[in-house]
Amino acid sequence: MLVRQLALSQNQPVEFYARVLDQNNQPVEGAKLTLKLTRTDETMFATTNFFSRKMGDEVLIIPFELLSDSNGWIQLTGTNGYFLDMTGLSKEGYSSSYPNGNFGGVHYEPNGLRDTYGGDILLTNALDSQRGYILHLLNTKDASQGK
Predict the structure, then answer these.
(1) 122 in a domain, yes or no?
(2) CATH of the domain at 23
(3) Sheet order of strands, 94-96 included
(4) Quick one: which of 106, 84, 107, 79 has its CA closest to 34?
(5) Low-confidence stretches of the chain (pLDDT beneath 50)
(6) pLDDT score at 3
(7) Are 91 and 22 contacting, i.e. CB atoms less than 8 angstroms apart?
């Protein structure tokens, strides 16, 4: 029972907020942000499963593809886990200044502690529903026309 409690205590409520803007700081609707959420599988500890599983089987990595709304906002709430990694940002007709692959994320810890990683101090804004973490896309159509 103690092992179960310790493992499941890793899963914490996830709140993540981002906003996608273009080079003119205008919202970009329909941009796709890909994320990976790492969490502990609660079913690992069901008596019918526990003894037939190996160490490490409890780790689930859940992919998400979220689209920005008409105001450029993207949010992920209503789930739980312990790591959330941003892995890509794209939209047809736009180029991203973010490389493919992990470019930061949030570590969700017990007692409401949150720790961002990825080298950008502004990533802490991803924890604030009013500010959000700003992601930029370059509108290649506008850029090619000199706008």
Answers:
(1) yes
(2) 2.60.40.10
(3) 73-81, 12-21, 133-139, 94-96
(4) 84
(5) none
(6) 52
(7) no
Position 20 scores a pLDDT of 96
pLDDT of residue 84: 95
C-alpha distances out from residue 138 to 25, 67, 88, 93, 133, Å: 10, 17, 14, 8, 17
pTM listed for this prediction: 0.82
At residue 119, the pLDDT reads 74
Q: Is the residue at 58 inside a domain?
A: yes
- Dmax (CA) of the chain: 64
**For tokens 């689209």, what's the residue?**
67
Range of the domain at 22: 7-142
Contacts of 97 (CB under 8 A, 6+ apart): 136, 137, 138
Q: How many domains does the chain have?
A: 1
**Residue 51 burial by CB count (10 A; 0-12/13-18/19+): exposed, middle or buried?**
exposed
Q: What is the pLDDT of residue 57?
A: 61
Asked, for residue 33, whether it belongs to a domain, the answer is yes
| Cα 32 to Cα 35, 80, 112, distances in angstroms | 10, 21, 28
pLDDT of residue 138: 94
Is 131 contained in some domain? yes
